[in-house]
Amino acid sequence: MVQKLVIYPDERVNIACTDVRSFNQTLWDVIEDIKDTMIKHNLDALAAIQIAYPYNIVLIKEADGSYSEYINPRIIGSYGKFDSIETTAYYPEITQIVPRAQRIKVIYEDRHGKPKSIDIDDEKYAATFQRKVDYLFGGTFLDKVSKAHRERVLEALKNNGLIPQVEICPTFSKKDYFVSFTDKLLFIMGLTLVSPFFNLSKETLNTLYTLDKFLLPIIFVLMIGFFFYAQYEAKKYSQCSSCQIGNNIGVIIKRFITGIVLAIGAYIILG
Predict the structure, then answer these.
(1) Which segment of the chain is annotated as a signal peptide (predicted)?
(2) For the chain, what is the mean pLDDT?
């Protein structure tokens, strides 16, 4: 049965969808509704939430006219980058350039609950899949722009005016410099642990131990700077996966623990 498309300003697309647990007639009816709606509106792809079903379901129309069904899809690998020219049924008036992975690896389940996987090498298909997955997590490509710019875009849409080009969430963040420099210091600390195997003098070993004690607080300072800069970017770009606080805390904890372990190792071996 054809369902009504969820179109801006309807905010139901902001709901994070839930996984499908029961693979039965109810699921198959939802899939048929998605397919019927795609046919009605001549769409190449549709997520269930775009017709107000809050489930992790994506349908994509294939070149031969068939429909591929992806239940509970997860992107577990992405490779390469390119600029994808995109439109979406939720914002009928908008065409934007969005950075996407050229190739992706996906795991999912079929309509009977059987686990599947697929490598998507076609850029257009990969971009379409990524755009639909955005919806499953409660977002669209406008959720990856600066808040001020997003407001200008939506205001223009509201007034049927000219839609400005979206300032997309950057694929590279300056906060990555903090991580890169920290990793180099951790590498140096790791090298000091193997220094006793090279028959170095006692004086040299003491110098290396002093260096380790000096590097550890620098690493802490870098990670604190990383956190605050990441928070700045999180405020500038909403729904940006590289800016989520959970990811940032994970990066910090991992390097804090590594630094402490290396410092303890240096104390035991060189102290």
Answers:
(1) none
(2) 84
